[in-house]
Automatic annotation (TrEMBL):
One Pfam family matching this protein: MerR_1
SMART domains hit by this protein: HTH_MERR
PANTHER family for this protein: MERR FAMILY REGULATORY PROTEIN, REDOX-CYCLING DRUG-SENSING TRANSCRIPTIONAL ACTIVATOR SOXR
InterPro entries linked to this entry: DNA-bd_dom_put_sf, MerR-type_HTH_dom, MerR_fam
Single GO molecular function: DNA binding
Source organism (scientific name): Pseudomonas putida (Arthrobacter siderocapsulatus)
Coiled coil region boundaries: none
Domain annotation HTH merR-type: ranges: 1-68
Gene3D superfamilies found in the cross-reference section: 1.10.1660.10
Full protein name: Helix-turn-helix domain-containing protein
Keyword DNA-binding set for record: yes
UniProt keywords, alphabetically: DNA-binding
Amino acid sequence: MDIADVAKRTGVPASTLRYYEKKGLLESLAGRGQRRQFAADVADRLALIALGQAAGFSLDEVGAMLMDQQVDRQMLIAKADEIDAQVKRLQALGKGLRHAAQCPEENHLACPKFQRLMKLSAAGALRGKRARGKAVS
């Protein structure tokens, strides 16, 4: 399948396909003329790359996983733990914002819960860094 067909079928721009090839994530076959040709399973490989990126892996990490016959399960578990922690931070942030929207205080800065949310954010707890405070409840 040539690069234009791959781009059309997958929605991945040709420039991205060339970049992935340059990084070693994709391999083109001998082309006819100047057009790059890809194996029929290129869409599956692109889906794996997209999944890895959605999970927060760098392209280098995705490439390493695609090259290895044995998947680094510890790396997958560590990334899953990071995602779980990020979900918890985002849930705390959402809960704090909902409280601020419904808070009876005239000024958000006068609300103790909102002040705690600001302190946690300033301490980095809502950006994934360790904080001295507790989660917003």
